[in-house]
Request: fold
Amino acid sequence: MSKKTSTTRRLGAAVLMLGLIGAACGEANGTSTGASGDALSGSITIDGSSTVFPIAQAAAEDFQIENPDVKISVGFAGTGGGFEAFCAGDTQISNASRAIEDDEVACLEDAGIEFTEFHTGVDGLAIVTNPATDWVDCITFDQLKAIYAPGSNVTKWSDVDPEWSDTDIKLYGPDPDSGTYDYLAEEVADPDADEPATRDDMTQSADDNVLVQGVQGDQASLGYFGFAYYQENVDGLKALQVDDGESGCVEPTAETVLANEYPLSRPLFFYVANDAMDSPEIAAFVEYWVSNAADYATAVGYVQAPEEAASANTEALAGLTG
Reply:
């Protein structure tokens, strides 16, 4: 895995009920039509980040209410798995919780696929424990590295801090196809490596809900996933404050994520194959998602993209549809 090509990564569940989304984004206003005035039909295939999945699925469900003859499939294979499908031409849209990487760009170039990047919100990567884990409220980057670095020998909480419990740590995290995995590996666990990674002797899954349930079920657990999954399960999880060594302990909240004060804040993306925009249903859906991106991000528990990112989205969309 290569280093990221973008420096925007530090900008600063599953599906919610349709009633909530409708309240956040407004009720459907009739059926959309293509350039010819005909009702839209066809299919759209989306895959990629499980972190972006709730946003994409919410947008897709609302769009299908307005356009019942358009069928949209949204998967959560992980950012890396999503880009593999995107490069193979199996999807028209690829969700990502990190910026596209050099080897993925090269794959798309070799396949003759031109693409456009859109920001769809900002996430604060939540470091979570079971609420019964009462000996820790704040964790540092150095401590996270000690726990999650490849080859780590940490097995007990007291291995990290002797004042913490002598209980075994039960670890949870995304699998290596996940952009969330990449992010923690590159930012914290293994930042100096050519191919950053985390330890693999833990429970890993592409499904963030599996990780949520694992942490909820193990009293001495530690896991990480997108902020929206914490927000949806706040009664059964405890989010730790994080200290990057510069700003002290910072709690993940919508305010600290938006201000880029929370040290694990990161932008969320989706990528569109430019040729796919020739299909009226895809062009209409992308325009719908971009136009309502801020509402969907906040409705499912993330933070809307900053103003400069929203402006970049508008320009990018104009370049594709103008």
